Structure formats: C-alpha cells, structure tokens
Amino acid sequence: MNRNSISSRLRAAGFTDPQRAARICASLDLEALRLSPEDFAICADPDRALLALARLEKTLPAAVPQMFAPAGGTGGVSGDTGVGGGAAGVGGGAAGAGGNDGNGRGGGGAAGAAGAGGSAEGGGAGDIDGAGIASEAGGQAARQRLLAVLGLSTALADHLARHPEAAQILLAAPRWETSGQAGTAWEVERLAENLGLPETSGPAAGGAQFSANLARSSGAAIASLRARYCSEILAIAGADLTAPAAVEVMPQVAGQISDVVTRTLEAGLQLAQAETPGAEKTRLAVIAMGKTGGRELNYASDVDVIYVAEPRGQVSEAEALHIAEKIVVRLAQIVSQAGAEPALWALDTNLRPEGGRGPLVRTLASHLDYYRTWGQSWEFQALLKARFAAGDRELGAAYVEETRPLVWQASQRPDFVEDARAMRQRVEETIASQDQELHVKLGRGGLRDVEFTVQLLQLVHGRADPNIRQSNTLAALQALAEGTYISRQDAASLDRLYRWERCLEHRLQLQRLRRAPLFPTQEGELRRIARAMGEMSGPALAEKFRNVRRQVRGLHENIFYRPLLPAAARLSESDISLERGAAFDRLSALGYRDPRGALGHIAALTRGYSRTARIARQLLPVMLGWFASGPDPDAGLRAFRILSEKMGSTSWYMRELRDGGPVAQRLCTALARSEFLAREIPELPESVAWLARDEHLQPRTFSQLTAELEAMVERRETALEIALAGRFLRRRERLRIGLATALGVIDTETARRALSQATHIAIQAALQAALREAGASPAQARAGCIRTRRKYNAPRGEDTGMNTGPGGETLEICVIAMGSLGGEESGFASDADALFVYRYGPETHGADPEKRAAGTEESTSSVETDVETNVESSVETKVETSVDPQQLASRTLHFLREGSAEPPVEIDTDLRPEGKQGPLARSLASSASYYQEWAQTWEKQALLRARPIAGSQTLGLAFREVIDPYRYPAAPGFSAREVTEVRRMKLRIEKERIPGGGRATHHVKLGPGGLADIEWTAQLLQLQYAGQVPGLRTTSTVEALRAAAQAGILRAPDASELIEAWQRAGAVRDARFLARGTGGPKADYLATDPAELARVGAILGEPGREVNEHYLKAARRARQIVERVFYGQEPHSPTALA
Fold it and tell me: I need a labelling partner for 251 at 20 to 30 A (CA). Which of 42, 927, 994, 1131 fits?
C-alpha cells in the first residue's frame, strides 16, 4: 500500500500523527485483520485505538487475529484465569472464541460463568446467535464497537488485554430494553455453579463443604466476578459509543449499568455471606440509593447503599447486626479491595442515618425511629431514590414501603424548601474556585441543578400526586410535565440538556473508568471528548458546554426558586384539597368575608380537565393564602377570576403564573390591593408577564416611548389611529407604573416623572395626528410643523423678513406643559395643564424638519425677529391661512378625547394668556407681548412650571427664552409687592378652594402642610432668587428645594422636611387613587373607611391605621416651615448671595 496514500487516509480518519500510524498499520497488517484506515474514523481517538491494538498484538499475538477472525476461526487462548476454559473462566468456551457447538452458540467451559454469556455457555452477552466478530452478518458493527471502545477507554483496553476473549461480547447487537430487575442474570441458586462448586453445597444450605470450597476459590471467584462486570460494561460501552444518537439511549445506558451493578452486588453479597460464619442467622438487604436507586448510574459512580438487617428465628438483634456488619464489610472488600482484577467501585454508605458516625447496619425499626425523630430534610430527599438492590427481597421491599410515606410528608417540615435551596448552595460552595466553571456534576448549570430542581418539585407536590413519585430523574421530569407542575417546553429542554451532560460525563469517565468531574482543558483530551460527543472540535465542545450550562442554570433558577414552592410546602393536606367543605373552612379561617362566593370563583377556575384547569388546581391553594395576606382577598380572588376568564385557554397565562418566578404572588398582591389594577390588568393581560422581573416594571424612558410611538405611527393610516396609539402607550404605562407603585418597586418621584411622560407621549401623538390631518408629512408632523400659505396682514414687527413669496412658509406649533405636568410631577389623579404656542416662518430655511425636531439646528429666526418691544397691540392679528393654528390646537384636544378604544386625556388650557377669554393657540410674538404688558403675578408664577413637551423643539426653546425673564427676574428681582400678592393669593385658596364637607387638615393637596403649601413655598423662593441662583431655574419642586438649601436660602433640615412631606403627600394621594380606582374630589382627602385605609396602607407598606397619623405628623412639621419661610416669619439669609 502506498505510504503517502495511507497517510492521507489516516489523516482523513482523524489520526493526529498519520506517519507514525502508518508504520503501526504496516506492522499490524490491517488487511489481514479485515480493517481499513476508514474504520478508525468512528474512534474518539484513532491514535489511541491503533496503539491499543498494537499493544494487544505485542502482548497477546494470538488475541488480535482471534478478535477479528472469521467465523469458526482461531480457538480459545487458555490461562490461569480461564480465558477460554479455566476454572474461573471469564467467557471463552472450550471450543475457543468464535467456535460453536453447531447450534450457533459458543461452546461452554465448566467455569465460564463470569464470561460474556452469563452462563456456562461462553461466547456472548446472553444468547447470542451468529459466528465470530468478523462474520459478514455482524462483524462490521462489532468491529466498530471494539474500535470505538479502544479509541476512548484505556481501562477497557486493559481489560481486553487481560481477557481478549471478552471482545466476543461485542458481537451481540445492542438491546436497550431495561427491566430494572436485580439479579435476573445471576440467579441466587446458580452461584455455586458459577463458582465451579457443587450445587448441593450452596450458601442457602450453609454447609461446611461449601465454606471449605469457597475458602479455596474465593480469590478466583472475586476475580471472575470483577472480570465479568467489566465485560458487561464493555458491551454497554461499545453500544453506547456507536449509537447513532447517544443522547437518545443515555437513559438505557445508565439503566443497564445500574442493572449490572445490582447483579454484581447480589453475587458479591452471596460470596460475602458464604464466607461469613453464621450468615444464616441474619436477614440482610442492600438498599440502593442515589443514582443506583434511580437506575441512572454512570460508568464510574460510587455506589450509594444503605444496609438493613433483621435477626432470624430466636437470634438476638445484637448478634444479627454484628454478623450483618461483618457481611457488608466483606462485601465492600469484594468489590473495592485491591486484587487480581481492578477494583470496581466504592460502596458509599454516608447516606445512612447519622452518616459516617452512625452504625453501618440497622434494623428496619431503628431506621424508622431515626427518620421520624432525627431525620433531616436532605435525608428525606435522598430516600426519594431508595430501591431494593440485593439480599433479602422481602426485607428490602418492607424498607422501601415503610420509608416512602416519610418522604412525601417531609415537605411539611419547617423551612423544608429553604433547607433544600441552602443545601444546593452548600454543594456549590464545596467546589474549588478554579473549578467552578468546569465541574460537570456540581457546578452552576451542572447535573445537580437539574436533579435538585426535579427532586424539589417532586417532594413539594408528590404528597398529593402519586404519579410524580418516580426515582429516576428523567421519568420524574416527564411525570412532572404531564402533571402540569412544569411546562412541557421547560421539561423538554431540561430533558435534552440533562441527557447531553450525562453523555459528556459518561465519556469523561469511560477513559479510565474513574470519576472525572471536570471538563477537560488539555488540548488532546478535549479533542478526544469532542469527537466522542460528535462535535467538530475541542473549542466547539467547550462553547456548547458553556451554552448548555447557561441554559440549565437559567431553567434551574426559574423553577427551583419559584415563590410558589415554599408556600405550597407549608400547606397541610386539607389546605391542598379544594374539596368544598375543607375549602370553606380554610377560606373562613383566612379571613375571606364571603367564603361561599369565593368557593364559586374557585369552582369556576378549576372546572374541567384541561391543562389550564389542572394548573389552576395547583396554584389556587397557594394563591388563596397570598390573596388573604392582602387587605381585600375577596376582591383579589374575584379580579383573578375575571382575568382568568378573559384569558380563556391562552397557554402562556397559567404557565406564567406557575413558572414566572414572583408573578403569581405579585399578581395576588396587586389584585388584593388595588381596584385600579384589578380593573386595568384584564384590559391588558400581557401586563401579567411584567411581574416576573423588576426591570419589566421600571417605567419606559421618554426616548423609548418616542421610538415606540414612531414605530406604531408607521403602521397607522388615519389621524385618529395615530392619536389612539399615543393614548394606548399612556394607558399601558399608567398600568405599569401602578403595578410598580403598588408593589413598592419604584418611589414617588420616579412614578410621578413617569406618569408625566406617559401623558406627554399621548399629547405628542395627538399633535402629530392633528398635523397629519391638516396635510403635514410624517417628518413634518414629528417636527411639529407644516407647510402653509398665508396672506400677510400683520403688525410690522411680527413678520419682518418672513415673507418668502409664492413658495409658502412653515407654521411651527408647540405644546407647553404647565402645572404638575410641566414639573413632571403628575400623580394618577392630577390635572394636565397645557397651552399652545405657534409661529410662522420660511419653510425651515432649508433646514431638515428631522434635524429641527432633534434640536440639532439653530432656529432660523431669533426671538428678536419674532418679538419687538414696541408692538402696539397684544391683540392677535387675524390672517388668512390654509392651516389655522387655532384649529390645530382644537383638533389636538379633540384627538385626546375622541374614540372609546382608549381612555381620554383631559387637558386644561386655562393657564394660557387671558385664560378662557384668550385664543386657544397664541403666536410667540403675541405671547411675548402679553407677558411683557399684561401678565399678572400668578401667571408669572405659573410659568415656573412651563416646559415644552410636544411639537417644534426650536419653537419651544424660543418660548423659554421669552418667558425666562418673567419667571426668573433679574435684579432688582421679584418685588415686595409681588411677594405679598403671592401670599394673599395662597391664603385665599386655603379659605375658598378646599371643598366643603371635609376637614381641611385632611386635604392632601390644599390642606396645611399639603402639596400646595410646599410647592408654593418652593415657587416663591424661585421667583425671589432664581434670577441670581441658576440652580433654582427648574420646573421640579424637589430640585428647587434642594437648590435653595444648597444656596443657603433654605435651611437644609427644612428642605429635607419639606421634601419628605411632599413625597408622602404625593404617595398617599396616589395610593388612594390606586386603592379606589378613581380620582375626583374625594381622592384628595385622607381615607377614613377602614377597608380602604387597609388598601392604602398595603400600597404604602405600612399598617392602614398608621397612614393618616404619619401623614398628619409630616404635614404639621411642613406647615410650621411654610409659615416661617413662605409667610415671612423668618427672613432669608442666602449665603450664596452674600
């Protein structure tokens, strides 16, 4: 064969050193072995496979041809351990590997029990029909299985070097059925035969001859036992590594490994009993725990076991336990002590009562007494996997039957769920910091995340649902999905990810048949494992491992830390039941005012057998308690029914409540606290999903709202649809802010700023709608302008230089927010004050309307052009124009009210120049003239809150330049006369404007120490000092007070007291609106109804009975400061002005 040709073929097959591989191939003569370089492509490490073959050929020259010989070929190779027919034979029959007895079976040697076949008929796993490995019928597949094993596992290659005839076990086609029955292959009564001893002297007879024979053959029997175990693992590994989809057969692989282990335990226990004098005096059962119990073992797991024993006949308990302890100590030596064959695995008994400090063997009564008296949460979690493995089957079954009820009662223990979560955290903390991201089993996103998640769900819900009482992780996961305790999507994801990580763990362990918990970092091993996992390269495998861990961790955190779990665990069995009698008693005890009505809601929510109804039956026992923790559980449950019925069979809704972390609890809280939220959530059901995370409840920024509006406007055809888009955003954001406020996610300042911006976006959309209706392009509408034609008939000053002839000109319009809206301090029940200003100019003078809207280009006409100080009249000049500014303003207001699809936005324009008597929209020039000549003191004060919010930004800036001299007067500043006028006006409001029928001290807005007191105090300081203190030039009350304190105009403690009182007043007012669901005059008073007070208190996070007391105390302190500062009882000494 051409050396270059074979080298290239070897390289293509995955060899890293094809030149060396070519030399080895030549020495082996691959063609004689019926192998080609391409056959090695299946190997995780082709170089390793080839070297293993070369090693076998060197140490056992006859073995390798025998492995690959045609049917009826080379005979067996005998030896001391019976390879082919010795006393403790490990498989090969007397006729040799591949020989047959004419019936298609390998001829059996006298001591072939531990060989591949499982009986004295050597030759294969079970009954294997066919011929040698190289036969045409099954040879190719068998060669692939052999090479796949040699290419990954040095441990199994070593086993083949010791027992080359074991390769015949690979001839059998894989059988993935898993019975789960211990001892089915190695029956008790055949032990004597398997050991080459007379059947009449078996362990059951307890004969002296049996013990004598065993003493002479014990070492050989143990070697035979271990060799047989490894041969069966070889068969499983060969099938596993060549399976088309390893993740699909992973559960069967783990199940078969578990069955081999339990068979080995059974045989080993028989050996130990036969060696131990007096063994017949005790009944002993081995209970499989952990992965052994769940039939999901790895190739190299420790085997977790618990021992239970009982005396036979009249034997004392102490003697029986003493003998049993000797037996189990010997059993541990049989499977794990150094010997002729490698040790198999350690028997881990640390899951027994009292752990390593407790007795190795206990009676069943002692086990039960311990668990009932001293058992800890983690021990009951461990018992979830308990399964009989070996020994006395009746005693083992009794152990499982007696301990099972304790498992399903464990979740009612105090802090059970919290303990389980803490244990998972402790497990993570045991990992060295450098291994945190590499630990396949214990690390974040590792196997334990899936196992802990599944087990916690089982333990919490399993006491009421026997269907999820499964010991196997994947079987339990499927049962949890079918029972609706986890979504089918999440269950499928966890199943897929868990299988993948288990396959990875298997391949890591197969290399040496030792535990390998860490993901490989060495290049050669990483490449080997990547090929074994079907990945293109080591880096690709590493990236997939990171992605899998990230997905597992996300699912684990979402499910394992559900608030529903600790609440469900605390429920009694009667609480879980929704049976009418038990439910009525519980509802009454929880404080529902109308238990019968609540039962009606429950019946409606849980009726039927749909997946939604089944999830509701899980959720409601817990949610009833959550509703009851609120101030009005009846209203909360009623609102929940309305919402659920509106959602109908929508798949995501109930799933979100179950899987969405705090969603269900937060929904209960919100519905039980707020009539507003109870009314609005069903109108926008997707809001339920916001409850999953605090960031979803954070108000959207104005830039986010603007971008969203623009995207919505592009899909709207009519002006009304554009306006409704803005009003929808406002409604949605008010609901978001209401939820965040009621749940304590945001503070008052944040809420009020966000409420103001929600109204801003609605006004912006309405103005765009009016402009679009008038013929503006989308870009012009966004920029707050429209091209128009005008016949000039205006005062000289207003239009100088503005006539552009037949080309037309641009009308700019801007909405100026006033009052609390301008200060970004709107509450849920606040009025929205605004005025309209406009101006005409050349068509942007070449400016891009988009740039003008963004404020990136200076206004083309200065304020001086628009305003001349010698304007003769402030009366608006009538002009003939194709677009009337008054009409634009009127249509804007119309679009804020028209249509029933979205709530209207009422705008108060009474703060405009001349009030109700003046034009709705006013030109910039006329506005300047008015404020110069006619503005009263209260109008100058109102301008302190003026802020452009919609339309032309450049016009808005120009308007601010016009009004700044009046609201921030320069020296000599605000006159003493004007100060007195402001104070008198405030006194008049206190006397006249507080509605009758209520106590003035309880009026949150206008009462002493209320919102108006504090806002007027801040505004008076602004009027007096903002001309000299730039920090006071703000529309915000809180910022003004802070700036006044910083400038020394106001004492710092006074400023803090005023801010605290203002925030509390706003919070109380908003909380009352949320509780009542409506505004109106009554909403400005403190609540007096106990039920409403309870709601308000819950929203504010304090007892309802203390709400009014806390408010009045803060208001009294604030009023004292107002009287000193606002009413002039204390002179100001501003340090900043000294």
Answer: 42
